Amino acid sequence: MGFFEKIKNGLKKTRDALFGRIDKLLKSFTKIDDELFEELEELLVMGDVGMYTADKICTELKKRVKEEGITDPSEIRRLLEEVVTEMLKGGQELDTSTKPSVILVIGVNGVGKTTTIGKLAAKFVREGKRVTLAAADTFRAAAIDQLEIWAERAGADIIKQNEGSDPAAVVFDAISSAKARGSDIIIADTAGRLHNKKNLMGELAKINRIIDRELPDSAKEVLLVLDATTGQNAVNQTKEFREAAGITGIVLTKLDGTAKGGVVLAIKEELDVPVKFIGVGEQVDDLQPFVPEDFARALFADENTIEEATKAEQQAEQTSAESEAVPEIAAESEKTRPATADIWEQIDAENEAERQALGQDEEAKKQAELEQQEAKKALEAERQQKREERKSRAKKRSWSTDAAADTHSAEDDDWLKAWREGGEG
């Protein structure tokens, strides 16, 4: 199943609740007037878009209707998709530009934080990256055990301590381990006790000091995991955590189980915090990068447009699969790659072989340098012997410093010239 199809299916409840009402509204009007926009704004508010964002959307729609001279109410659906896409754009890319990069994941209990970390880890491992998980939520019962299970499923390394340990110490150990193992990404699970913001701020500040000291130039993301089923409460949580933790992005989970997907708009527009990932199912690959165009299309486009987009994606996938097909590929995803332990054992073995090869190259280089030095010594000894022989011949023949009186051979020219000038020759 393709990305767009997953998002479309995941947003079905929101689409049915929001788009169904909007579509019915637009069909009930024969002209575009203020009454239409008032009712549209009300529907958007009911869809958890929020009062501020709903008003802004309708204001922009009125502007475009006037600029384009639109009179058919059905055209507003297209404009709505365009406006929402533009509002949601910006900041979706996850910064993992350094090795290692650090991702801190925060969120209150029950929003799917640990599951999100596991799915993120699996995504990066599938991309060929080595991931280290830091079990720094040391105060919640069973949090460490749950993360350990996900690490095994995803094929990631995990660094943990006993329950109740200092979270910053766990992050420090994870950084040290990641450096030693050559990990590409460190994902840290952190406590999300919103009821005591002072303690939360203190813990996160300490963790950030450790990261800044040990990895001063690393790319760092702070992702807040939110439960979409909470609707406008998700906006309130974002406000609180933004003040406490300086979040860089949102992961909105459980979108497939709610009709309140419109909260994505409220979070981005009211708080200027980008949504980077959305959860649209229970499977490990159901955590999808947030694409504004796909989100807006899945919510507001007509059925024909959605059907065409789905078919185009399926055709592209089929073409790609045929071009990359190899015989006897296993059907289950687990069979397409070796077990977790085998993957990293193989990588470690390759790294060790590379280190040994480098050691052998260094030894060969040293041997070559020794041989070169011996050759230089032999050449210098040969030259010295020739100098002594020439001095002896000069004494026997009593060569004069007068060039006209010389009877020496031509091969002694260079030596004789130096000798006459007072050098050793």
Can you describe this structure in just a few lines?
The protein has 425 residues and is an alpha/beta fold.
Structure, described:
With 425 residues, the protein is an alpha/beta fold. Helices cover 59% and strands 9% of the residues. The protein has 15 helices and 8 strands. The protein has an 8-stranded mixed β-sheet with strand order 3-2-4-1-5-6-7-8, sandwiched between helices. Strand 6, helix 11 and strand 7 form a beta-alpha-beta unit.
How would the blueprint of this fold be written?
Layout: H1 3-10, H2 12-28, H3 34-46, H4 51-68, H5 75-88, E1 101-106, H6 113-126, E2 131-135, H7 143-154, E3 157-159, H8 167-181, E4 185-189, H9 197-214, E5 220-227, H10 232-245, E6 249-253, H11 263-271, E7 275-279, E8 287-289, H12 292-300, H13 303-324, H14 340-397, H15 413-420
Total beta strand runs: 8
Instruction: Choose one word for the global shape.
Output: elongated
In this structure, how is the largest beta sheet organized? 8 strands, mixed
The percent range for strand residues is 5-15%
Radius of gyration: 36 Å
Order of helices and strands: HHHHHEHEHEHEHEHEHEEHHHH
Which stretches are poorly predicted, pLDDT < 50 over at least 5 residues?
Answer: 326-341, 400-406
Count helical runs: 15
Mean pLDDT rating: 79
Spatial ordering of strands, largest sheet: 3-2-4-1-5-6-7-8
Determine the fraction of residues in helical runs and give it as a percent range: 55-70%
N/C terminus separation = 85 Å
The helix-and-strand class reads: alpha/beta
